[in-house]
Amino acid sequence: MDSPAVNVEGVTKTxxxxxxxVTALQDISxxxxxxxxxxxxxxxxxxxxxxxxxxxGLTSATSGKVLVHGAPVTAPPEEAGMMFQKPVLLxxxxxxxxxxLPIELKSGKRESARHVNKAMELLTAVGLxxxxxxxxxxxxxxxxxxxxxxxxxxxDPQLLLLDEPFGALDELTREQLNLQLDRIVEGVHKTAxxxxxxxxxxxxxxxxxxxxxxxxxRVIGVVNVDLPRPRTLDMMQTGEFLDLTNRVRAxxxxxxxxxxxxxxx
Length: 265
What we know:
By secondary structure, the chain is α/β, with parallel strands linked by helices. The protein contains 9 helices and 10 strands. It folds into 2 domains: 182 residues, Rossmann fold; 71 residues, no CATH class.
């Protein structure tokens, strides 16, 4: 874990609106090494998802730059996979064919057919092998998100961008998917960035938790998480884990004092 995977250098993002310019992010600088998992936590509207979208090439920064494996990001990087809060599965395709969709879109049906075994291995890893022939409406929300994880991983991306992928799920399902995601990412040595509102989720999954201020979003603190991997749900009951979450919470609470929303109130 010593080669740079992502460099965010002085990124500022300002949106131009009819009622005036809105600065969502201000002078963000972050470096991730290969294989590192970080979380972005901050108040609603602080620009967490905007920063993730800039790293993923879905929107551009107003100033500053982003490098993924040394290359400037001007479009979605081929080595990146993204997952959103909703699974966004195609209802007319089976779960297996939803997983294979990125390969089919990039290289055609013949190439996607060559990846069926890999898709089944991924579905097996998340407990969905028996549901490969089912359709999305036949699966629960948690099962659909597991399928979305497989779809993200089928093209073997080196960088995973996760925008609150489990935010709409109940706590128990969310914990189980956190556990599965930790196992998968650790097993294949991916670099990952998670946007979350959950302090416990961010702490459980991450090597570092970056805490952002209220808008305009800035990184106001970093909490290093030195818990051993693979992580277990029992760790969440330990004093060490609770101390880490309390440190994140304290930074998060102080972050409300930094943004323009609090200053103008």
